Amino acid sequence: MAKTVVVVQRLSDFADDFADWLQRVGYRVRVCTGPSSPRYRCWAQTFDDCPLWQQADLMIYDPWLPTGPSAYGSGRLLALEHGRHPDRPILVWGSGAAVPRDVASMERPGEVGILPADVTPESLVAAVANLIGPPESDEAAVKTESAHAE
Under CATH, what is the fold of the domain 4-149? Predict the structure, then answer.
């Protein structure tokens, strides 16, 4: 089975691009726009956990998700879910290149990484593969190869 990447981005154009780039090489992708009006709450806050985090092998997270009508910054939400799922690697990317201090301070090799502002399809796929490996698990690849050999 393909590995799952969840893309959490407030701007759908970027989310769509990221999803397309990752799907083209074989990753399974789920997209979330994060909290939205009128309550600015998401599943993580409403249900005490996010089912998308549970499904993910890796998260790509926007540090500037809306938290109110004119407020942005999702560091507390990211820290909350990272605490619930510490084994889930995270790549942070936000349009405009600025990353809030609370999110930047979470950066840890192999755990939380920050993507460059000028992310390309190649650099995104390489960063994802570096953290979780190729799209298919080794077990799935072996089964596929066995099926083709028969």
Answer: Rossmann fold (3.40.50)
User: Does residue 36 or residue 144 have the better pLDDT?
Assistant: 36
Strand order of the sheet with strand 28-32?
Answer: 28-32, 4-8, 58-61, 90-92, 112-114
Sequence ranges of the domains in the chain = 4-149
Beta bridge partners of 114: 92
What is the spatial distance between Cα 77 and Cα 150, in angstroms, rounded to a whole number?
49
Please name the residue ranges forming H helices in 25-136. Answer: 43-46, 51-55, 75-84, 101-104, 121-132
Q: Which pTM value belongs to this model? A: 0.84
Cβ atoms within 10 Å of 56's Cβ, excluding its own: 25
**Tens digits of residue pLDDT in 80-99:** 888 889 999 999 998 766 88
